[in-house]
Amino acid sequence: MAYYAALTSLRELLEDIIHHDRYPSFRRGRENIMTSLYGKFVALEELLQDYTSEGEEAADRLEGLIRDAACNTQDIIELEIFEQIRPLRKAINKAVRWLTRKDQLHKNLEMVEHEIDSITGELATIMERQRFKNLQLKTDASTHHVFEQTPDETNTMVGFDEYLTTIKDQLCGQSLRLQVIPISGTGGIGKTTLARNVFHDALVMYYFDYRGWTTVSQHYNENKVLQSLLKSLMSKTDKSNGEEAEASKERIYQYLKGMRYLVVIDDIWSIEVWDDLRSIFPDDCNGSRIVLTTRSLDIAQYTSSCGIVHQIQFLNKEDSWSLFQGKVFVQDHCPPEFESIGKSIASKCYGLPLAIVVIAGILSKAALILNDWKQLARNMSTVLSSKDSHFSKILYLSYAHLPHHLKACFLYIGSHPEDHNIRISRLIEMWIHLGFLRPHRDLQSLKEVGEECIEDLVRRNLVVITKKRSDGRFTSCVLHDLLRDICKDIASRQNLSFIIERGVVFLNQERYASQQHFNFHGYPHFRQYYPFVSSYLYRPVPEWSENRMFSEFKKENRDRYKLVKVMAVHFRTTSSIPEAILRMFHLKYLHLHVFRFEARMVRLPPSLSKLQNLQTLIITNYVISTVVLPPQFWKMTQLRHLLVSEMNLPPAPGVGSNAVVKLEYLQTLMTVYDFTFTDEAIERIPNLRKLKTWYRGAEGTCKWRLHGLNKLIHLEHLENLEVSFKKECSSYHPPVESFPGSFAFPPSLRKLSMTGCLLPWKDLSVVGALPNLQVLKLRKGSYLGEEWKPIEGEFRSLKFILMEWLDLKYWRAETDCFPCLEHLVIKSCRLVQIPLEIGNILTLKTILVDGNNATAESAIRILEEQRDMGNDVLQVSVGHLKYGDIPPHQKPAFVG
Q1: Nearest residue to 414 via CA among 498, 539, 297
Q2: What is the pTM of this model?
Q3: How many domains is the chain built from?
Q4: Highest mean predicted confidence (pLDDT) among 50-54, 579-583, 764-768
Q5: Closest by Cα among 552, 489, 565 to 526
Q6: Does an H or E element contain 492, and which?
Q7: Domain assignment present for 147
Q8: 519 in the Ramachandran plot: left (φ > 0), alpha (ψ -120 to 50) or beta?
């Protein structure tokens, strides 16, 4: 895993040196060896595209060599770059040290070259051996006479009754066409158990003429799967003769022809396997069925014949306890004194049935001793994540089957705190800055690559999405705690991450450190690894003193983190960014979580601009203070994302004799207070995509011109804009003003949010004319007046509307005004009713209303009217209540 991430990261560094001339002083005199190294590592990376780890000892050792070679090369180069920019008191000392280092550096890089040549040769040998082995497995049918047995009994199922009933209905339903019924879910969640219970259900056994079962597993062996299916289908008097694959396929087809059959294909890992097998199942329109289990949602959706996928969810606490009791005590009941600790043990299995069964199996074979149960509860993670345990091996398969580029991404998620909602956009930025991602297609951005990685992990049931944006895109995710334990174990063995939490310290890792709820005091031997840490996540407990929290960033430790690229740290209080952090030359991603700044206004030092490689700066300030950036901010040419809870930007420097320094890469700027967008500012941020700006106390009718907001139209790439005027929004009778003449927003806008703009509703036509606008959020004071009548032809691409705390009473809309609308949200508005014509929009999926009885009643009327017309897609939510096919007399009264 780590070898691919290390190669990708090193390749990015070498490209910066060779092709982008990022470090000219380092490159000078080293052009030949840098070019040679780049060529060798690129060739190695390309060779690995066709390589698949088979879990062999030689392959595992080789992967470790590749990882170490790439990491060591990057460390050598980046440490030298750091030393070059490090200030020294005496120039003569600097020159002597430079000459010494130059000679040693050249020798080290030459050694790396020889090592890569050796690794490439060994890799070619291993790949040739793998090709021969795979060819032998496909052609040598005589070696495959050990068959998977058809499961003869059902297992205890808890919490799956609804799944069982639904699947049985599909199996014995009215459709006569052959149907494929996929069951999807993470490893150990109970897919096979559910399929087994369906397979042995009395009604199912009676309904089908033939029933067969075969297990595919991760490494597909065609002959083994076919012979296994033949054996389970045929009577004991018939015999399978181990014939070739094509003969077995023909025999199965003829055996099933004309019969009503049920076949379970358990644990399928690839679409190609299904494509290979599907032709052996005849469709005689007699109600035959195929049940398929898989960990991949992609496979489930691909194979489903009716578009329905049964995606198994984790058990709740009650069902977890019920399953645990049944497995430990069988016919008996749990003694009262064991119930509390038993429930605690069951809950620590986090709803994963396999984990519950494994732990229950341990306890059922042991004497009933309360202290033993308590000790097990304290060591649950160790028991379940042990690499030799059956449970761990099953979950490890999900990781082992990941493509190379996903493995590092998945394991890095495990370095985040348990039960922690992870902001996906920030996670992707971390992946990018650590060098995990490379484009797969021309013109594909790394952000798009990262989003595809998240979607892939979701489809493989390895991460759970906890929040989505209004446009349906993923916002945050969480990693199941037991999968996180597996991540930690694998990362530990591969020298990837260093995680310290709850007083447990692992001392042999060196690349990515995650310090959670603990500190390094008392572990001085860990500090030898600091120079090689490239990612550091620091999350102390709240009750620590400030001195203790800042111990890692004192002056004497200022050069400790020489190679850190990603840093996210939590502080309870601070006056500014610690100086030690501002000396991390290679830092690309910095996220400061600050509960409270020591002053109402915090000025960042000019030395911020020394972070020449910084691309993402996030300052989360829970007790709001204004962060003032220094004028040197305009020199940070590598900056891509700047997110601060509340910040003041210095005015953009005027155009002088020198060429204007542009922040070409800056895409995100939020939240900026009282900033005037002058011509110079617009010129310096030409590629801005996301802007959030707030203004306080603006008066008069010229505020759009006053702050230069009319110049935003020149930001040709702007996609997301939020504009708020705070003080006027609270006025009881605020004046209404219009947009300045010929005012227009950038046509590229896809999302717009407005607050306190005090505009008349007729001016919303300026927004309605935007050709690409998909999301519109109108909050308090954005538009004033009681009536809004959109004009036909406006809002052609709009999919989502939010109206919140508006004075609007009469909304007069025709269906043609919002032809693509999917979601409508109305909160705390005076609206008398939602136009009934809104319900006739073919794309409309949801209406959510909160805070107004009249609006809620009109939403319910729209739903009833649409149900009468046969529309089963539209859903209406009123407050916390959701309406669907509920009869009108059963609907509870709305409480505003």
Answers
A1: 498
A2: 0.75
A3: 7
A4: 764-768
A5: 552
A6: helix 481-493
A7: no
A8: beta
Report d(CA 770, CA 786) in Å as an integer.
24
Q: DSSP code of 791?
A: P
819 and 856 in a single domain? The answer is yes
**Per mean pLDDT, which range of 256-260, 451-455, 492-496, 818-822 is the poorest?**
492-496
Same domain, 58 and 14: yes
pLDDT tens-digit readout, 634-653: 999 999 999 998 999 998 88
**Among candidate residues 575, 601, 633, the one where a domain is terminated:** 633
CATH number at residue 438: 1.10.10.10
Based on DSSP, count helices (H) and strands (E) in the chain, helices before strands: 28, 32
- For residue range 183-224, list pLDDT tens digits in order: 988 887 888 888 888 888 888 888 888 888 888 877 777 878
CA-based R_g, the chain, Å: 31
Task: Classify residue 397: in a domain, yes or no.
Answer: no
Q: What local confidence, expressed as pLDDT, does residue 89 receive?
A: 41
Distance CA 71, CA 545 (A): 36
Domain boundary among 391, 410, 432: 391
Pair (43, 102) in one structural domain: yes
Q: How far apart are alpha carbons 786 and 761 in whole angstroms?
A: 9
Q: Where are the alpha helices (DSSP H) in 19-90?
A: 24-27, 31-47, 57-85
Q: Is-contact 540 549, C-beta < 8 A?
A: yes
Considering the domain architecture, whether residues 882 and 809 belong to the same structural domain is answered as yes
| Same domain, yes or no: 815 and 860 | yes
**Widest distance between CA atoms in the chain:** 96
CA separation, residue 195 to residues 122, 162, 201 (Å)? 44, 13, 10
Residue 635 contacts residue 662 (beta carbons within 8 Å): no
In this structure, what token pair is assigned to residue 431? Answer: 């992946």
What are the strands, taking DSSP E only, across 333-439? 422-423
Q: Residue 674: enclosing H or E segment and its boundaries?
A: none
d(CA 483, CA 494): 16
Tell me which residue range forms the domain holding 802: 785-896
Any idea of the CA torsion for 779, 783, 787, 790, to the nearest 10 degrees? Answer: -90
Asked whether residue 128 falls in the same domain as residue 256, the answer is no
Is 640 inside a domain boundary? no
Contact 478, 466 (CB under 8 A): yes
How far, CA to CA in Å, does 702 sit from each of 435, 656, 681, 709, 710? 47, 29, 20, 10, 10
Rounded Cα distance, 139 and 679, in Å = 71
User: Are 341 and 293 part of one and the same domain?
Assistant: no
Choice among 17-26, 219-228, 373-382, 755-764 with the minimum mean pLDDT: 373-382
**Residues 549-606: pLDDT tens digits?**
555 566 555 666 778 888 888 877 777 788 888 888 889 999 988 888 888 888 999 9
Q: How far apart are CA 449 and CA 459, in angstroms?
A: 15
Q: Do 374 and 420 have their domain in common?
A: no
Q: How far apart are CA 83 and CA 81, in angstroms?
A: 5
Classify residue 307 as exposed, middle or buried by CB count within 10 Å of its CB (0-12, 13-18, 19+).
Answer: exposed
- 114 located within any domain: yes
Rounded to whole angstroms, the Cα distance separating 245 from 141 reads: 8
SS3 673: strand
Tally of CA atoms within 13 A in the half-sphere of 859 that contains its CB: 30
Long-range contacts of 622-627 (CB under 8 A, 24+ apart): 622/593, 622/594, 622/595, 622/596, 623/595, 623/596, 623/597, 625/596, 625/597, 625/599, 625/600, 625/601, 626/600, 626/601, 626/602, 626/673, 627/597, 627/602
Contact 588, 566 (CB under 8 A): yes
